[in-house]
TrEMBL record:
InterPro entries for this protein: FliE (IPR001624)
Entry's localization field: Bacterial flagellum basal body
Organism: Cohnella nanjingensis
One GO term (biological process): bacterial-type flagellum-dependent cell motility
Assigned protein family: Belongs to the FliE family.
Top-level taxon: Bacteria
Annotated keywords: Bacterial flagellum, Cell projection, Cilium, Flagellum
GO molecular function: cytoskeletal motor activity; structural molecule activity
Protein name: Flagellar hook-basal body complex protein FliE
CC terms in the record's Gene Ontology section: bacterial-type flagellum basal body
Length: 104
């Protein structure tokens, strides 16, 4: 009885794996460079937006539409995003210099 209820084990055919293999898109180095450049531009635009927001909230504070807490939060966000961008730039430069020092 128990033996009759078990299904036979069969191998997976190559046709069954084809949809999975097609799902992984191969990118060329040029496409990867473009996507990295787009990501980098988006990140820098985000930093600029934080800075513009800090200026806008400061202007609102001057005319009495925002309180000091909003100004400090916006200024701190802008400062942190700029500091993060600066540190990332420093690390990229360090990595580039390390690659240039490698012996070929």
């Amino acid at each position: 009885m128990i033996q009759n209820s078990l299904l036979p084990i069969t191998g997976i055919s190559a046709g069954a794996l084809a949809p999975v293999q097609n799902a992984v898109k191969q990118t060329t180095p040029a496409e990867a460079t473009e996507s990295f450049a787009a990501f980098l531009k988006q990140a820098i635009d985000g930093v600029a937006a934080q800075e513009q927001n800090a200026h806008a909230v400061t202007d609102q504070f001057i005319v009495g539409q925002a309180d000091v807490n909003d100004v400090m939060i916006a200024a701190t966000k802008a400062e942190l995003s700029l500091e993060l961008t600066s540190q990332i730039r420093n690390k990229v430069i360090e990595a580039y210099q390390e690659i240039m020092r490698m012996q070929m």
